[in-house]
Amino acid sequence: MKFVLFRHAHKGILPFEDPELSLQGFEQAHRISDLISKNSLSIPTRLFCSPKRRTSQTFYPSAQRLGLKTEVNPDLDQRASQESSIDFKNRVQKFLRQIEKLNGNLVIFACTHYDWIEEAMALINSDKDLKSFEFSHWSPTQYVEFEIENNLWKVTMKGTANENS
Question: 114-123 and 85-101 are packed helices; what angle lies between their axes, rounded to 10 degrees?
Fold first, then answer.
């Protein structure tokens, strides 16, 4: 099974609580879809996103092109202000374990937030050091593709859908 973890595209500033993508972000979202159509990214079989609108908007062009539904999963949400660091870590770990239990030739795309990705990188059992500088900064639409076998997450590709990539 493949799992591709994305940071959402560039966000705007309004509405403050749950901003939409900026114009740049909408362009980045279309580039993700273009990368799939050019076979630069695997074709997803499922799309997961956090409850924040910017994550579903990031996958919207791909979902439309592929006829897929974007599945909102609250476990992918950024850390809430009242949420303890332990509760946040447990929520991220819960999602990762659910992914590990899936079988078959699935290609899962998940779109989430910078803080979630930082936590996940510390929890994933990988063939690479995901806490190293190579994986330390995530710009909008940056992604890492993993091949998951026997709970080992092997990094197979990384990139971004930014214009300069």
Answer: 70
Alpha carbons within 13 A on the beta-carbon side of 104: 7
pLDDT digits (tens, 9 = 90+) for 79-133: 999 999 999 999 999 999 999 999 889 999 999 999 999 999 999 999 999 999 9
Angle at 115 between CA 151 and CA 123, to 5 degrees: 20
Residue 82 makes CB contacts below 8 A (sequence gap 6+) with none
Whole-model pTM: value is: 0.96
What is the CA 126 to chain-centroid distance, rounded? 17
> Which whole number is the average pLDDT over 40-66?
97
Distance CA 55, CA 29 (A): 10
Distance (Å, whole) CA 141 – CA 9? 5
